[in-house]
Design brief:
Layout lengths: L1 H37 L4 E5 L10 H9 L3 E3 L18 H13 L5 E6 L3 H10 L4 E7 L10 H5 L6 H4 L1 E3 L5 E4 L4 H5 L5 H7 L6 E2 L1 H4 L14 E6 L7 H8 L5 E5 L5 H4 L1 H13 L2
Parallel strand pairs: 1-2, 1-3, 3-4, 4-8, 8-9
Antiparallel strand pairs: 5-6, 6-7
Helix pairs in contact: 2-12, 3-4
């Protein structure tokens, strides 16, 4: 009897060890799966604001790349290193620049639009819905079908940018009163830093500002959308931002920042973009 009991005990112990081993393997497997999901590498296409260029994303790009992600920061026509004359630029010029980039990608991207170019990324997403995994609006114009920049700013109060906005004599480009540019867009960075970037600021072609957005629920409407609001924004007041995104996005994030957190809080902005990538 004692011998039989010993045999039974050995069998029970072996069974317990086997079950424990299986659980451990399953647990390790699940942990590995979660780690793979968490560490999935994304491609971000970051679209700059009006008057700026791909250069505006320098510090944000650095953080995203350090995490192993691919980052594309194009210059739209007439901005950054692209010297196309404003009179030759339309919204189609902007759109083609971005659709050409998306067409070269093997997988869908996280498409980010800053400020005015929220309109641009909306149209691009409409045209290439399978190439856009998520749409992110950084204190940007998130407009309905038929909306335009000029329509959106009509009657807006409390915007230093709108109050100091004007068109050139030939109406081909737009500017903001030079004395108020930093106050309008980047009041929370040192003047020396702003003055260093100032020579890169360009005239904004006016034709895209007049473009009326064309989007559908079938294409654009099916893409998850996220909004990053900037509560100290003096270009697009926070009430205007919230009026555009409420009820229209999957989730909103908030930064206590001017219109350009890419300059004043680049690491926080990058971390917010990383959080959005993990959203289901």
């Amino acid at each position: 009897m004692k011998q039989v009991s010993k045999v039974k005990l050995v069998v029970v112990l072996m069974a317990a060890l086997t079950i424990s081993s299986c659980k451990s393997k399953n647990s390790n497997s699940n942990q590995k799966e979660r780690k793979i999901i968490k560490e999935k590498k994304e491609t971000y296409v970051l679209v700059h604001a009006a008057w700026l260029g791909g250069w505006q994303w320098g510090e944000v790009t650095k953080t995203l790349k350090e995490k192993g992600h691919t980052v594309i920061t194009p210059d739209l026509p007439g901005h950054g290193s692209d010297k196309t004359s404003p009179k030759d630029i339309t919204m189609e010029s902007y759109i083609k620049t971005l659709t050409d980039i998306l067409d070269k990608q093997d997988e869908s991207v996280i498409l980010v639009g800053h400020s005015f170019n929220g309109i641009t990324v909306s149209r691009v997403a409409e045209l290439r819905p399978k190439k856009v995994k998520k749409l992110v609006y950084l204190t940007a114009f998130l407009l309905p079908n038929g909306g335009s920049f000029f329509k959106a700013v009509q009657g807006v109060k409390g915007s230093t940018a709108v109050d100091n906005f004007y068109l050139s004599e030939d109406k081909t480009y737009a500017l903001v009163n030079e004395d108020e540019i930093q106050n309008a867009f980047a009041h929370d960075i040192p003047k020396e830093a702003f003055d260093g970037a100032k020579p890169k600021i360009v005239a904004e072609p006016s034709a895209p500002l007049m473009y009326e957005l064309e989007i559908t629920t079938e294409n654009y409407g099916k893409i998850p959308k996220y909004y990053i609001e900037c509560t100290d924004d003096r270009a697009i007041p926070i009430e205007v931002q919230r009026g555009m995104y409420k009820g229209n996005v999957t989730k909103a994030y908030s930064l206590t920042s001017s219109h350009t957190p890419n300059f004043s809080q680049p690491e926080k902005l990058a971390n917010t973009l990383l959080e959005i990538a993990l959203e289901k």
